[in-house]
TrEMBL record:
InterPro entries: Recombinase_CS (IPR006118), Resolv_N (IPR006119), Resolvase-like_N_sf (IPR036162), SSR_resolvase (IPR050639). One of its GO terms (molecular function) is DNA strand exchange activity. This is Recombinase family protein. Coiled coil: none annotated. Keywords: DNA integration, DNA recombination, DNA-binding. It comes from the Bacteria.
Length: 198
């Protein structure tokens, strides 16, 4: 059984972006899908926790890339790896072809590749964590520079035209928040923020 995990950091992002390529990869094999919008820097993620709870020995945990599974600190990454190993899950990373052998998992070559893949996955998890730390540092530097120059800090500002259109749709009271977000090309969270301010 494939346990397919898809993640995006915020509700503004499309967590299902990679679903099609994962579906092509697994073909007609039995699969359960676990999709969430949650930061990869947190170990405690509701949908990932559900996947780990549901998983059976020798199931395959399939992710698009390591950073979809983890941008965790070293200690938290070790904890997550332990949970995966305790469940006897086989981790397959779509953009790491060497892990694809875990699907068959036969013979001494597979055991050697398992060791090599663990090292590669650890390296990729470290790179994902460092990338996240650099991104946070760059944002902080940009905010400090903007503050020193007396510029406004905190996002792109309010799109007044979008807010007015969303308010009109909300006042019509005949359309769901999800449909408004689709029609206006914005996130559901944005519609809820505007609704809260009415």
């Amino acid at each position: 059984m494939f346990r397919c995990y898809l993640r995006a950091s915020t509700t503004e992002q499309d967590a299902e972006r990679a679903k099609t390529i994962l579906e092509e990869f697994i073909s007609d094999s039995p699969a359960e899908w676990y999709i969430e919008n949650h930061t990869g820097t947190m170990l405690n993620r509701p949908i990932l926790n559900q996947l780990l709870e549901d998983a059976l020995p020798n199931d395959i945990l399939l992710v698009e890339s390591v950073d979809r599974l983890s941008r965790l600190s070293l200690d938290d990454w070790e904890t997550l790896k332990s949970k995966i190993n305790d469940k006897k899950l086989r981790l397959v990373v779509l953009d790491m072809p060497t892990t694809h052998q875990q699907i068959a998992k036969k013979g001494i070559e597979s055991e050697i590749m398992y060791v090599i893949n663990n090292m590669l996955i650890d390296l990729m998890a470290t790179m994902a964590r460092l990338d996240q730390q650099k991104r946070v540092e760059r944002i902080k530097q940009g905010q400090e520079r903007a503050k020193a120059q007396g510029k406004r800090i905190g996002g792109k500002g309010v799109n007044k035209e979008l807010h007015e259109r969303v308010k009109k749709r909300l006042s019509a009271n005949n359309i769901s928040v999800e449909d408004i977000a689709k029609l206006e090309g914005c996130g559901i969270a944005t519609v809820y923020r505007i609704k809260r301010d009415i």
